[in-house]
Design brief:
Helix content of chain A: 10-25%
Number of strands of chain A: 9
Order of helices and strands of chain A: EEEEHEEEHHHEE
Radius of gyration of chain A: 19 Å
Number of helices of chain A: 4
Largest sheet of chain A: 7 strands, mixed
Distance between the termini of chain A: 45 Å
Oligomer: homodimer
DNA sequence: TTAAATAGTGTACTTTGTACAAATATATTC
DNA sequence: GAATATATTTGTACAAAGTACACTATTTAA
């Protein structure tokens, strides 16, 4: 069925989420070579022999987006012997949340890849390997996190309106939320700092701007205050 | 610092919990060889080239305890380059919950190990590698699962009293719970089947026996009804 | 029969979540 | 500058879930 190799190869793949053009999107790269040449895939690469897995995931992230200091959490390790058609490759998957503003996607002269692009997570193209499963699982995890911890702020600019915050929740949970209840809950949490500024009205009534108070995140679990 | 190898080695280690003698315990094995010769460790082994990671974890579990069909969940993948003193070994850790009755621990003529024993999780000996961290993290995970899903039944015999059930929660959470509230909550969940039997009074007033209704567990997340 | 041990039970209060509709502030346009 | 369109903002009543808390009942053993 597949070529036996002496050892496993170990990679890390990173599902990178952002909100862009009013949609929840993931970063995909188009593969230059077989297997799955020309297919879209989530960015990934081999873990180097002297680097931690976290460091490898961060390196992959940085190669493609040039961002650091963002929410990055280990998701799950996928190791079906048949997930790669020609070798035994175990991948330790991560997911990340970033703000898409001022991010310039890049290849870094990487001949492995012919394109890098944001794709709406609810309208994905056919994907290489088991990457569809990995994205679905990371979406599930992000939703779970959202229940306990306002990680959505990783997707928002420094200053944001309550409507923008709610919109990010709705995009991730893929359902409408009640405006009054959403505000009540968030204001009760006292993790929002009400600013003296308002939107300079791109349209209609200006909205109050908020920022997040400092939050200590434990990336291994994603709870408040570790 | 450590010998460079061409590739990573990939293992799986399994934290196996049980309740025995009124204590929450984990299964440890004593290592026969270096590194960490003579030190206690959680059972583990290399993932074979054609087996899934789940299958490898299950194999390790079966080698030591001869049980199957129990709750086994992937925990986290630990990959610090310094976690193993002489090689680069990435380990995909799992945890399992089993009933300790009628379990015969075994080596299977394994020269890697000189002893197999249950150890109270709150009084651990010095452990090999990063196994202390792995056990601590799995304890944290078991506690999280307990909030959503009655996985504690994996630790109990087929028929049990509410006091026994509560005791298992108290051992895992490491705190006392209120008897009335505990009972109210569980009976409201309607996942318990009240039996017509009582304990044949090993002591004092006999207690009603219960069993669990069939529950569909999704081991990747551990929620009710997948 | 009495004492000791464990099993079993209910109520008031607090907190959290949910359903739901009207008034307000600005920009645009006529 | 008046009217209109659009997005912002606000509160209350009800339901559900969690928490604190103390006494009675049944059995065994002395």
């Amino acid at each position: 069925m597949f070529k036996e190799t002496k050892t496993h190869e170990v990679t890390t793949d990173v599902v990178i989420f952002t909100i862009k053009d009013g949609k929840l999107k993931v970063l995909l790269v188009k593969r230059a070579h077989e297997p799955f040449k020309g297919k879209w895939a989530i960015p990934g690469g081999f873990i180097r022999i002297s680097e931690t897995i976290d460091a490898a995931a961060l390196r992959i992230l940085k190669e493609k987006t040039n961002v650091q200091n963002i929410y990055l959490e280990q998701l799950y390790t996928f190791g079906d012997p048949l997930r790669h058609p020609t070798a035994r490759v175990i991948t330790c998957a991560y997911f990340a949340l970033i703000r898409s503003d001022d991010i310039v996607l890049s290849f870094e002269d990487n001949s492995e890849i012919t394109e890098v692009e944001w794709h709406p997570v609810y309208e994905l193209p056919p994907l290489a390997f088991d990457h569809k499963e990995i994205i679905e699982y990371s979406l599930k995890r992000v939703r779970e996190r959202l229940e306990f911890c306002p990680i959505a702020f990783q997707l928002l600019p420094e200053k944001f309106t309550l409507t923008e915050l709610q919109k990010s929740y709705e995009l991730i949970l893929d359902k409408k939320l009640d405006k009054r209840n959403f505000r009540k809950k968030f204001l009760a949490l006292s993790i929002l700092k009400e600013l003296d500024e308002c939107t300079k009205s791109g349209s209609k009534r200006p909205a109050r701007l908020y920022s997040f108070n400092e939050i200590t995140l434990n990336s291994k679990r994603g709870h408040f205050f570790s």
